Amino acid sequence: MTTVAPLPIAAAGVSLASKPVDQAGLKKAAQQFEAIFLRQMISSMRSASLGEDILGSNASDQFRDMADARTADSMAEKGSLGIANTLLAQFSPPAAPTLSPGTVGLPIKGPAGLAVNPDK
């Protein structure tokens, strides 16, 4: 049995330095993910039909699929389920804390959320 040693992160070409996030691209990707999710959900709902379609044909099925895809895209653009917003919140970098003028640092929280004074 041959074992392979893992590559160091630098040798693998992965950088741990933070890179600027393309918010517009992230928002577009999140909306597209929500649209795909909605398409799958609508498709599953359609396949769970209780009866046989009397006037059904391949053409009407194809038209219904296209209409369902457009409906899913429209719902995703409006943020109907909020999946895109959740993904944006998850993958966006956290905002840096802002300090007011004259503030040295943020208070340190101890057990039970009590402020701890490191000088004493």
Instruction: Choose one word for the global shape.
Output: elongated
Rg (C-alpha, Å):
25 Å
On the 0-100 scale, what is the average pLDDT?
Answer: 76
Span between N and C termini?
59 Å
Number of strands: 2
Physical arrangement of strands within the biggest beta sheet:
1-2
Structural class computed from helices and strand pairing: mainly alpha
Unreliable stretches, pLDDT < 50, 5 or more residues? none
* Largest sheet report: 2 strands, antiparallel
Range of helix content: 40-55%
What attributes characterize this protein structure?
single chain; 120 residues; mainly alpha; two-stranded antiparallel ribbon; 3 helices; 2 strands
